[in-house]
Design goal:
By secondary structure, the chain is mainly beta. The chain is 7% helix and 38% strand. Strands 20, 21, 23, 25, 26, 27 and 29 form a seven-stranded mixed beta sheet that branches. A six-stranded mixed beta sheet has the order 10-9-12-17-14-15, with no helix packed on it. Keywords: Metal-binding, Oxidoreductase.
Length: 478
């Protein structure tokens, strides 16, 4: 039976929800816009990652496709998305990177009850920011995301961006067995306490090694999103000079990436502008060379034989319009610090989780392998989880994140975007706002945000094995 959830809320929960609704209302256009009605269904399906002649792989998918349908929304327009659960287990949907009311954030136990098999949940929000976002489960995240549940969501700018085409690449990493099926072994000790479940096949929009057709002289906006469980990517566009115009949905100073490599951690998005100046009929590889000695061809830009679209490069400005992000007041900021701890170190020891050094089998059977400030929160969300810190609504938070581990962690904040200020004491260029910040081993990153969105919010590593094994916490805005 399908029905919408209605459940009893505490007085604090009611006040938080009401405040969140007020925030959402404040971001709507002056004239009421028609509600954009959408519907998606999570259910088992089949995919052919190697093309129509390749083996069929059993997956879990939104609306039967890998990835799920692209949801194209408009900035400030209210949307109502009904999610149907056709799985045999609970699920939710997290609208990754969108600043929305807390009750719509999709964390089971923390912001909503899980969607039971055969039931529906209705998500309602008005996206305040234009940009590139994505959606995925936040229930049994490792297994559900690892079986394919992910989709892109774009919020269109009020005025069209001056490009010839708007392209989207959702990048997914799969660990496949010899028969082409998704390999078992989710949540292994090694994955949980080391680099996570890195796969052996990568797809763009559900296909591997397919050419990307382009035309000489055109300018494209390419939206890249990494929906992998753990794989970090560093993309090189041979013979081309991509210009980064947005990170995690938020516009930044247009700039070329350092060393020409676009580094995308799990959950990150990067929008680039690509002026296609290759010769008609030429082919140019896109290489992922993040891991030493393991570079591979992700895809090929295949120019058609038509004459160039224009004789000279497009001269329209590259900068995207700014989003209405509140500006932190660093002179009156509340300072908070989180310290990332744990993981396997030299000799196979577990580093300081809950004061236990190398005791037991970290990461096994849902056990903790990681901690934030000495506390491990395992799984996807937890009712009654005490917040690590509490902020008053409207306060500026100066947040320092310290990585004391030997591993990389893309740290994701729910409900906000972070103004990244410095890394290891050096100012960060290009005015970046991010909801997912990649931290190298021993990194210290300083960032800031305005706590204008009330509720209990997750802050966790988006290497999903790490999240499930304890690298997750909650903070509260009242």
């Amino acid at each position: 039976m399908s029905h919408d959830f209605h459940y009893t809320m505490s007085r604090r929960g009611f006040l938080v929800a009401a405040a969140g609704a007020a925030m959402s209302a404040s971001l709507r256009p002056a004239r009421a816009a028609a509600v954009d009605e959408r519907r998606i269904r999570a259910a088992p399906g089949q995919a052919r990652f190697g093309g129509p002649d390749g083996p069929s792989t059993a997956v879990w998918a939104y609306d039967g496709t890998i990835p799920g349908p692209v949801l194209r929304l408009r900035q400030g327009q209210p949307v109502r998305i009904t999610v149907e659960n056709g799985l045999d287990e609970d699920t939710t949907v997290h609208w990754h990177g969108i600043r929305l009311p807390n009750a719509m954030d999709g964390v089971p136990g923390l912001t909503q009850p899980p969607i039971k098999p055969g039931e529906n949940f209705v998500y309602e929000f008005a996206p305040p920011d234009a940009g590139t976002f994505w959606y995925h489960p936040h229930a049994n995240s490792l297994v559900q995301l690892g079986h394919g549940l992910a989709g892109l969501l774009t919020v269109e700018e009020a005025e069209p961006v001056a490009v010839d085409r708007d392209l989207l690449w959702l990048l997914q990493d799969w660990r496949l067995a010899a028969d082409g099926q998704i390999a078992a072994g989710f949540g292994s000790m090694m994955d949980a306490s080391m680099s996570g479940r890195v796969g052996n096949a990568v797809t763009i929009n559900g296909a591997s090694l397919a050419d990307q057709p382009v035309r000489a002289g055109e300018r494209v906006r390419l939206r890249l999103a990494n929906a992998s469980l753990a794989r970090i990517m560093a993309l090189r566009f041979e013979g081309h000079r991509p210009v980064i115009v947005a990170i995690d949905g938020q516009p930044c100073d247009p700039h070329e990436p350092e060393d020409g490599r676009l580094v995308l951690a799990p959950a990150m998005r990067i929008d680039i502008v690509l002026d296609l100046q290759g010769d008609p009929g030429s082919r140019h590889q896109v290489i992922d060379d993040y891991y030493d000695g393991l570079a591979y061809r992700l895809t090929t830009l295949a120019y058609d034989n038509a004459p160039p679209l224009r004789a000279h490069p497009f001269d329209a400005p590259l900068r995207l319009p700014a989003n209405p992000l509140p500006v932190p007041d660093l002179t009156r900021a509340v300072r908070q610090e989180i310290v990332l701890q744990g993981g396997m170190m030299g000799g196979g020891k577990l580093a300081g989780v809950g004061g236990m050094m190398g005791m037991g089998m970290p990461g096994m059977n849902g056990g903790a392998a990681w901690a934030i400030n000495g506390m491990s929160m395992t799984g996807d969300g937890m009712a009654g989880m005490p917040p690590l810190f509490t902020l008053r609504r409207g306060a500026t938070c100066h947040l320092t994140m310290r990585n004391e581990t030997a591993w990389w962690h893309p740290m994701h904040i729910h409900g906000f975007s972070l103004s990244v200020l410095s890394r290891n004491g050096s100012p960060v260029p290009n005015r970046t706002w991010q909801d997912t910040v990649l931290m190298a081993p021993k990194d210290t990153v300083e960032c800031a945000f305005v706590a204008d969105n009330p509720g209990d919010w997750m802050l966790h590593c988006h290497v999903v094995d790490h999240q499930m094994a304890g690298l997750m916490t909650v903070f509260r805005v009242t």
